[in-house]
Amino acid sequence: MLTNEELTYAKTHLGRDLTQTELNMLDVLWSEHCSYKSSKRWFHLFKTESKNVYLGIGEGAGLVDIGNGYLVGVAMESHNHPSQIDPYNGAATGVGGIIRDVISQGCKAVGLMNCLRFGSPAKPKNAYLLEQVVRGISDYGNSVGIPTIGGEIEFDDSYEENCLVNVVCIGVIKPEYVVRSSASTPGHHLVMFGSTTGRDGIAGVSFASESFSDEEEENRSAVQIGDPLAKKVVIDALTDLVHEKLLDGLQDFGGGGATSAAGELAKKGGTGVEVHVDQFPLREPDMRAHEIIISESQERMLAVVAPENLERVIEILEKNETPYGVIGKVTSDGHYTVLEKGEVKARLPIDLLVDGFPEPERDVGPLPTRSPGMAWFKEPDDYVKVILDLLGSLNICDRSWVYQQYDQHVQTKTVVDIGENAGVLEFPMGKLLAFKSDCNSGYCLLDPFHGTANSAAEALRNIVAIGAHPIFIADCLNFGNPERPESYAQFVDAIRGLGQFSHDFDIPVIGGNVSLYNEALVDGVVRRINPTPQIMLAGMIKNDGMPVRRNLITPWANLSLTGETHPELNGTEFQRVVLGDIKGLPPRYRPQEELKAMKAMLQAHSQGLIRSCNNVGRGGIAISLMKMVLNSPYGFKLDLEEAPGSARSFAERLFSESGARYIAEVSETSQPEFMSIMEEAGVRVCEVGLVVQDHLADFGRFQVPLDEAEEWFRSGLRKHME
Amino acid sequence: MTTAVIRFPGTNNEYDVISVLKAIPDGDPYLVKSRDGAKALKDADSIVIPGGFSYGDYLRAGAVASVGDIMDGIRELASGGKPVLGICNGFQILTEAGLLPGVLLANESAHFICRWVYLKVSSGTTTFTKGLEDAVLRIPIAHAEGNYYCSAEELDVLKSNGRVVFRYCDSEGEASIGANPNGSIENIAGIVNEKGNVLGMMPHPERASRSILGSTDGLMILENFVRASKER
Questions:
Q1: CB of A139 within 8 Å of any CB in chain B?
Q2: Could you report how far apart the first and last alpha carbons of chain A are, in Å?
Q3: Which domains are seen in chain B, by residue range?
Q4: Does the active-site annotation cover A79?
């Protein structure tokens, strides 16, 4: 809801009282979700420019030039609050919304990803939420025929009252077909199409901009309902409209409905709009202007059409049997005017409506200090047991229960499907792009700056392991209430971390979304989510290379560990498994080491020296290697006694989560070349073992029984869901 | 010769199939929208009903599509002995329309399932599997309702006439319970009609048609289909 201060500000600005319709319009557009009023002021910390960026932050999707006359488009967004209330429809419409963002630039949608956070599925309520969210994503994404090619999922008690559903859509387009989200020519028509307007999703953004109270049930009408079949029809109609270049502007109806869609078009075009609510095709007959103008009914698009193209546009819409209405015109008066039966119901200056809000004061509070000490650490007696516990733990175990519900192969461009380090899609002209999302929210809780930068680095390592050069970042920043200083401090530090990473690695941030107020008051106590800056990184495989997977494939090849292992066990999965909690200072973000390792690994990849590869992430070297062996017919024999770095004890070497490390399978003949690349780059490297013919996992001091390991890994999540 | 690739509202694999058929000599596909009706099939020598969610799979997968006017045209071509291939939702439509026996029930897991599976091809030669007899193929599936079921009598007829073309199996070709992804009776993944010119299969051959996608095993099935279309 508008604050008193905002209301007074608007009245003073206008010199009069507001109508009901105007109140509703300002309420939705000045919500945190639409206005970014607490977050926008920090975006300058991101690197956003680069010679390949065709369209950066600010419209439906960011667009990046991938050469040969094609652009890749990406949008990323949260649909957290609706998914907590109505997980099936909330998640489904999250997917629907992100697809609209990408197709509204004219792109063909070619891939989906989702990043999910829940409380432990051992509790039935969380298992129910997970089940329904996955079903919602699966029913919707599968029906519209876009493959899901990546994503991730993390479990933590902090998400119990606020599950997170972040979605990504990837698209492709030739520059000459790009449609911009602006209405720059007065006299052009505003044509909406795709679906009718109803009362679902009324003021969804305002509801998403508040914390949950105990009366969640009342908010159910704020959740939209999706219709994938209607979306498929919209996609088909839009394909024709874009192909014939009939649109001068396009915006989807997302958060804020028609208020946001037409308002944004006018703002970007420096114009005004006149909207006649009687021209909206309605699904409920008695709707009023103040409802119609903010309804978030799904599957609707708003096109800007020049008078000479109107007839043809209508012809195409009728041929596709999609509901449509010519709802108004672009004007030159700089106002958003709403008319109902000829009567003016609202008339607001675009500059006031779209981003004329009074910027609220936000306090950055102090963050708790964390200790680097590891007094809690004790060398385990039974390493095998720790490895099995890790394999079965919720943040490491097999996720196929989730991703097998997603169609990963429709459109027949999926080169690497889910379950590897990154998803890889084939783009026109044979270009291969890799996509990976990541966020270690435990690290981010303990140290938002390092945790965020390190989460981005982890995504980068996945992209590099598969053999791709990073090309851009998209993000979705999920945090608590920005009006609370300690929560806002987490947010600001995380942005600093991501900003630092984007500059250190020279990778532009081209799109994103902010979701605040992810906290709840339970019996008077604030339950806030871990800071969750979800990062999506895309990379390109250059020079006709092929993606390198992580299963061991060559008996008698060497296994090399690159990078240094430090005694960094605070904040790790090892700590979580032995202590049941995480604490202390998490692994450091080390840009220099990370950068050196990236360049050296990419060079080795480009020379085809690496047979299989994994980065070292959650669970350390032990888990990284186990993931290389579980789905391989072969095995490994190791000697970890010489691993470089300051880690001393065996458990430190096995389970430390220090960054900038990879494990590469390199055949004997390629080994000298591989070693010299690493040496020249100044990357510490060590042969830690061999691939062997038999399916076994021999760590030198002990062996992990693989049938047991497979069962622990396979059942970690499944046992809660079946 | 030409192959009609049918699109119902909600079908979403039509261009995947078309692009593979185009890459096969004489594949010659053309898109037919279901609302164009039976007359749009008059030049067709064969038909593919691709996967997707026809009419949103409302009611039951394939049920609405199976009573459309276009089905009369498909039925006529089928009875004339021309090759008809139903993939995934296409298989569901063919059973709903009575062109193939049995039904496709919800997966035993009650979830949509997408993954690579192995298929054991029948020993007997069929139009669609010439040269693939007894082979083990690797092709992906993606469906919520792929649990094939038919009566004991129908199953007897299918088996004794060599009409079970594909069975889910493990990498060694063993049609074991563990290799069955959806609970289908006797691991059945694909069957043909009595005449042998109508094939329904749950796995997606078009998704295993280029080596970059991980397998070309599906291409061989589609090549057989094109060759059969030419012979008719």
A1: yes
A2: 42
A3: 3-231 (3.40.50.880)
A4: yes
Sheet architecture: strand order including A509-515: A414-416, A423-426, A432-438, A532-541, A469-478, A509-515
pLDDT per position as a tens digit, A689-719: 999 999 999 999 999 999 999 999 999 999 9
A584 vs A378: CA distance, rounded Å: 15
Q: What is the pLDDT of residues A157-200, one digit of tens each?
A: 999 999 999 999 999 999 999 999 999 999 999 999 999 999 87
Residue (of A270, A353, A279) closest to A314 by Cα position: A279
Contacts of A709 (CB under 8 A, 6+ apart): A387, A388, A391, A626, A630, A697
Per-residue pLDDT at A217: 47
Contact between A353 and A18 (Cβ < 8 Å): no
Pull the structure tokens for residue B65. Answer: 């599509």
3-state secondary structure A356-385: CCCCCCCCCCCCCCCCCCCCCCCCCCCHHH
B204 is catalytic: yes
At residue A206, the pLDDT reads: 65
Catalytic, B206? Answer yes
Per the rule left: phi > 0, alpha: psi between -120 and 50, beta: everything else, A6 is alpha
Quick one: what percent of chain A has pLDDT higher than 70? 96
Residues with Cβ < 8 Å from A694, sequence gap 6 or more? A634, A635
Under a CB-based contact definition with an 8 Å cutoff, are residues B203 and B119 in contact? yes
Query: Quick check: B113 and A404 CB within 8 A?
Result: yes
Contact A412 B209 (CB under 8 A): yes
Q: Are A181 and A437 in contact (CB under 8 A)?
A: no
**Beta strand spans in A523-657 (E):** 525-528, 532-541, 558-562, 610-615, 635-638
Residue of B57, B108, B146 whose CA lies nearest to A144: B57
Q: In whole angstroms, what separates CA B70 from the centre of its chain?
A: 18
User: Which whole number is the average pLDDT over B204-209?
Assistant: 98
Contact A54, A63 (CB under 8 A): yes
Supply the mean pLDDT for chain A: 94
Neighbour order of strands in the sheet with A662-666: A610-615, A662-666, A558-562, A685-692, A635-638, A697-698, A703-704
User: At B84, which helix (H) or strand (E)?
Assistant: strand B84-87
Whole-number Å distance between alpha carbons of A281 and A269:
26
Give B9's DSSP letter.
T
Checking if the pLDDT of A312 tops 90, the result is yes
| Alpha-carbon gap, residue B132 to B50, rounded angstroms | 22
What does the alpha-carbon distance between residue A172 and residue B97 come to, in Å, rounded to a whole number?
38
Nearest partner of A452 among A580, A591, A576, judged by Cα = A591
Q: B115 contacts in A (CB within 8 Å)? A: 400, 404
Q: Does A410 touch chain B (CB under 8 A)?
A: yes
Residue appearing with tokens 């109270």: A213
Residue of B nearest to A416 (CA): B213
Query: Distance from A399 to chain B by nearest Cα, in Å?
Result: 13
The whole-number average pLDDT for the span A316-333 is 94
Residue B210 with chain A: CB contacts under 8 Å: 412
Give alpha helix (H) positions in A72-123. 80-85, 87-103
What is the rounded distance in angstroms from the CA atom of residue A497 to the CA atom of residue A533? 10
Q: CA B139 → CA A220, B109, B176, B210, distances in Å?
A: 42, 20, 17, 11
Q: How far apart are CA A304 and CA A182, in angstroms?
A: 8
CB atoms within 10 A of CB A127: 17
pTM of the model: 0.95
Task: Look at strands A148-155 and A108-118 and give their pairing.
Answer: parallel
